[in-house]
Give the backbone structure.
Amino acid sequence: MASIALRFPPSELPESALHLRDEVRAFVKEEIAAGTFQPTVDSWLSGISPEFSRKLGERGWLGMSWSKKYGGHERSLLDRFVVSKELLAAGAPVGVHWAGDRQTGPMLETHGTEYQKQKYLPAMARGECFFALGLSESDAGSDLANVRTRATQTEGGWLLNGSKIWSSGAHHAHAMVVLCRTSPKDDSNRHAGISQLMIETDQEGVTIRPIHLITGVHHFNEVVFENAFVPDNMVVGEIGGGWAQVVSELAFERSGPERFLSTFPLFLEFLKVVKGTREPRIQEMVGNLTARYTALYNMSLRVMGMLAQGERVDTEAALVKDVGTRYESELTEALRLLVHERGSFAEPTRFESQLMKALLHSPGFTLRGGTNEILRGMIARGLGLR
Amino acid sequence: MILADQILVESATKLLSDLSTVEVINASEKGEWAKDLWETLEDSGLTLACVPEQLGGAGASLTDAFAIIRLAGYFAAPVPLADTLLASYALAQAKQKVPLGPMTFIPVGSNNQLTAELTGDSWVLSGQAIAVPWARHAAHVVARVDCDGKPCLVLIPRSGIQVTEANSMSGEPADDITISDVSLAKDAIIPAASSDQALNNLGALTRVTGMVGSIEKVLHQSVQYATERVQFGRPIAKFQAIQQELAILAGESAAAQVIVDAAIGEVESAGAEEAGLRIAAAKARVGEAAGKATRISHQVHGAIGFTYEHPLHHCTRRIWAWREEYGIESEWATLLGKTVIDHGPDALWPWITA
Ligand SMILES: Cc1cc2nc3c(=O)[nH]c(=O)nc-3n(C[C@H](O)[C@H](O)[C@H](O)COP(=O)(O)OP(=O)(O)OC[C@H]3O[C@@H](n4cnc5c(N)ncnc54)[C@H](O)[C@@H]3O)c2cc1C
């Protein structure tokens, strides 16, 4: 019946994934009980704990889908989905490894050289090596192809000049894949002449400057390259093939459960606050919010099911991300109206502090990794409108 | 999860797209019974799809029956497939042979003022019921009535009821009926085998399933229209404002679809009564999608979509009408929310992801 190529075929978690789910749930419970972390909203941005990342590495919960040869565990994307969704729902500190585990690792596995894979993937899978994303620039936001950072060929490699901005957690990262121009811009083919080069954050010619969020927290960075030398063996994939590589990398970026769960821990705090309430207004809202999570969870699971089958899901993933990221803020807005009392700012309750954090983080939800306007443009293309 | 039978879905799609035409739908609203459409559906076994063969049905799964209802929503089929499903389900659960022909179902509730009284050795049925879907065209009405304090189903032939015709917002029949001292045959009184809760849940699920089909249809109609309608020298699909709105509509359609699938899956695995909360979630979420889908699809169509001439209203009016039936979404959301609050935060995520 569908004349339109939007598909959400049913997907179910296999028995093995359900076991895994129970393991992760038990682990998270123990860690919370032991005081390792306190659940927090937006934990994949703000939960910084290299120690926790290493614990996940020990359990085999990083690099899950990568080849064993490179320290991975050769598990399905559905298994990875299960681990991600459980950690996010629990508000666990997964921020330092998130970007590398989600997209840089798989991209390196596909496009990296043997040397690069041996050098980085096993350490990433152990939770000992973290990556930042070197994509955006001051004049290349939504229009990523407008990158101006350039690399010029030199003896044995490339010299990198320019700067990246909004690089999340670059100050915690060991390395970064930088999208740059390796030949001058050609207006008839904007995507040509773009490459991905890898740098290490402590190398000569690389300066990392902090940029603070509206909360005052150091999250973003400007990363400046001044004749930073990139040896030939740190070129990722093909020179000139960077655009196609980054586009396939971004498919991983859009499809995960972090696109609807960033504020879920706030909902759990809220349920503690309203425990035992008989107010129909609150009951109704809780019902509506639960229903929306249920729909999003099922959409996300179905997209992951298709990805695990090796299908292309660009439009569907963009769609889940659009609905999910808008919902992350809508939830916050709904909950704040249901709790009347506000206490001391000196000693806010857990709900109050998480509510403030959710609001202060909310602008990022619909911007990061491609704005919702851009996503809806992609959906429109999938619908055949453009 | 049980998947709907592909062959059945394909043949239902073909049949409905051939026979549930604009003309048939409009004629139906004028009061004409869509005889060809119904009979063809019936001959293909689609009207009693999930009734076991030995009771007169096609022996397909509930999932199949719901797939047919979704398609009926997509094609705005002006026949009581959903109500026949409910009536036949109730009868089949009670191990009753199910008659052919269109049926409607009257659940317990304030709209149902029917009573049965034992007079001599036969039961006599009287009273009223209001807003009964398709009553005027039903060959049989199945109503939930207490007999001797026990929950029973009564199977009443059309000849035993007086109908005051009325239509719901969709233009489909929603008649008031009166029954005056009709003596019932012994075998027309059947002890109910499903709880009222189960039947009410299933009723709600038929409505949201129809809505999913209709929402899908208005999405397709809107995309199609946007690529054809030219303003300022180009198709309106080229305007970003239109693209953004239709992207949102596509998201609502997908959300509605997956949550209804989850509810149907739970009815299959746990039963209609136990699936109540997931059906509540579906009612709440699809109700929300309904508001957005009708708004956006009409906005994109401009004035032409606001006319009777244009078929957009076949689905938008059905969406609005079905949203009101078997409990508005706020009631269902409150039920779900109450349970979530009672069970506390630790139970929530396991439930959502179950
Ligand atoms: C929390 C967070 C973390 C991030 N982390 C990283 C990171 O680690 N590495 C990295 O490289 N980048 C990162 N980014 C940057 C992110 O990718 C960009 O913010 C994003 O792509 C948008 O670019 P911009 O901010 O320049 O906005 P712009 O592109 O300038 O957009 C401004 C506004 O204009 C709208 N707009 C732009 N073009 C169009 C169009 N064609 N149609 C309709 N509307 C349009 C946008 O939707 C937006 O509303 C991060 C951003 C955030 C918020």
Strands of chain B lie at 103-106, 112-119, 122-133, 140-147, 150-157, 162-164, 174-184, 189-191, 230-231, 234-235. Chain B has two domains: 6-191, 196-353.
